[in-house]
Structure formats: C-alpha cells, structure tokens
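Two records follow; treat each independently.
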Amino acid sequence: MTTRNFRVMSAVFILTIFVLAGCGAAGSPATTAPAGDADITIAAVPSADLASVYIAQDDGFFAKEGLRVNLVKVPSSQAIITEQLAGKIDLCAGAYTPYISAEAAGKRFRILAEGSVMTAGTRLLLVPKGSRLTSLGQLAGKTIGMNATNSIGTLLVRATLAQNGVNPDSVHLVTDPKGFTTMASTLAKGTWAAAFFGEPFATQGEEEYGESSLADLDQGATSNLPVSGYIATQSWLEKNPNTAAAFVRAIQAAQLDADTNPNAARDALAESDSLPQIVTDVMAIPNFPVGAVDATRIQQEALDMIQFGLLSKKYTSLVDSGSLVKDLIG
C-alpha cells in the first residue's frame, strides 16, 4: 500500500464506523466484518461526480476489502435501474433522481454512500461555437441535448429555466443514448441549440470544440444540490450485508482522498476516460461528502423534483413527511 493510501485509510477508519450503522439489512444489526472474496458489478456513469469509484479501483481500496469490482460504464443511472432490479447489476454509481422516482413508485433501493454535491461549473448548459443564443429566454421552442431522460439533468434544466422566467415545457429535451461521451461533438455539428453537460465533458466541449456556457446550473433552488451516490437494491443489501459494508469502507476512503486531494480526482478521470490534460487541469470539481448519508440534502432534491415536475404531486405527502428519503437511507 502506498503512503497516501495508508494515510487515507487511517483517517477514515473511525468515521466509517458510524457510516456502516446504516448499511445492515433492515431490522438486523450492521456488520463491519470483511467481505472476504466478493465479486461485484458496479454500473458507473462517466463523470467527475464519481471519481471516487475509479480511485477506489485504481488505488486498491476495493482490493484491500477483498472486493473484485467489475466497472461497467453506462450513459445514465436511469438506463440501468431495470437491470439492477433484475439482479444483473449489484450497485449503481450515478444520479439520485431516477432512484427517488423509483422508490416513490414502490421499488426498494438503499443509498449506501453519497458520491458528490454540485459546485459552480460542474453542470452547465453549453451552446455551439458561434451560436447567437445569449440568454435562457432564447431557448423557448429550441432543442436541448441531454444525457438521460428524467434524470438530474432534466431537473436542473427545468429548474434553471423556471427560475429565469422561461416555461420549461417550451423547450424540447432530446436524450442522446450514448450519454455525455459523444455529446460535445454532436452539439458542435449544430444538432441541438444547446446541451446539458456535467464535468469533465463540459470542459471538453469548451476546450476541444469552442463551445460556450449559456448558464451555470448551480443556482437558486438547485444550488449545492446532491448529484450522485452509490445505490443498491434493498434485496441485494439484505443478501450481502458484509459486501455492502466492505464497499462503504472502500468508497469512504476514496471519497476522503478525492475531497482532500482534487488532483487525485483529476488523475482518476484522466485515466478512466482517456482525457487530455488540457481538460482535466481546468475542469470544475464537485464536493465529495464523507460520512453518513445526509438526509437533509437528499430531502431537498426530492422536494425540488416535486416543485419542478419530475415527481408527480401525488407523492407530495410522502416526500413532505420525509418517509421517502428515510426509506432510501435506511
């Protein structure tokens, strides 16, 4: 183990004890026993928000806990929910939004650990080089490219438009099935009037294609919004409490590394997504929370989903009471 890894693991050891209290199966005591040999498949959305999962893989935090991890890159967490419910995927590293919707609809998921909290520059609306669009009001009737349907991007775009006096229903949101990885080149061709991006792909669009920011989506009601986390089905958690506990220990160590050393996150993304240094050196980095899942943050996202039309108002009482978020956190 490297000196850096030893220092991170020592610092996080005490902290993870109370984190793991939320990782046992419902109604049973949590366990901190090692997982032993365990193979898990994690679906990960390529983005700066999930740098920790790459750090945990590359720097041996998973291996230390006896975990053999197969990382599968997916365009969005929305795209993987069905496979996760079918038991084909163990964990998802992705946005909370579709899981809040699924939980409200009666599915059973558990957030094992937080992934990221949005900061300035980490979520942008970009327009092509030479675009005549200079304000959000000009987007009415236009098409906006998205990496996913009814996910965090949808929430952020609708909220930003509404808070700037633009009817969210006046724009056309079109999903690119390949996700962020090809969207900058598609936008550059003029396929869309604008496109939603997370880092590092927002910076890639700016640096490689000359695209420019029309709006930073870290504003108003969605400022400092929790974006992503590490999520399992309740049934998987009940069957694999030791593996879940080992995963949390590993990811918390990686979170602490990413939060205290931004270059660790930059290096991990450069390697995982084969990004040039010109992108990783200047891209915005989110916050990487360490510790127990913050119910207040997740609750704010659920409330925003009700307010901006991503969650049916029939779930208002379930959200307002805190029951929905309580079930997700456990």
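The next record belongs to a different protein.
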Amino acid sequence: MTTDPKRRIYEEAFKRETVRRLMESNESVSSFAVSIGVDRTNLQKWKKIFGPEFMPETGQPDGANDYSRLRREFASLKETVDQLRAVVKKNFENKYIGEE
C-alpha cells in the first residue's frame, strides 16, 4: 500500500473551525479556500458535513433567511431615503418659499 506524501490529514476540530470561519466570512468557498490554502473540494465537503451546525435556527430554508434579511435591509434603506427627502424638502421650502 502506497501513501501519497502530498495528501494532508486534517483534524475534525480544524475542519469545524474552518467551516465556522467560512460561514461568518460570507466569502465564496473558492476564495476562502485559496486564502487559507485548503483544496476547494475538501472545503465544500466539510461545509456540507459541518455547515448546518453554524446556520441560524429559524426553521426556514436558507433562501427564506436571505429573503427576510433583504426585506429588512430594504425597509431600512427606504426609511433613510424618506428621511433624506424630508430634509431636502424642508431646506427647499426654507430657502425658496420662505423668502418672499
């Protein structure tokens, strides 16, 4: 039996920590794998095995979590735009309408 000298064996703790960092980073698997020097296919396998441990437990599929997050962000941005419109309107009224 021959062993490949290039083959690396990773501890389970290392795999879990790597997947946790991947999930927190929001990077793609490919770019994260390159940045830490691990093969992309290994990281994909580890994510499949250990990834669910680090997912928020909402009882909804991943897509629903993303959709909810995007809706909250949109609502926040809409509120900011409305506030900016109010400020611009007030400044416009003070500058052009109030000086008659």
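Discussion point: The mean pLDDT is 81. How would you locate this feature using only the token line?
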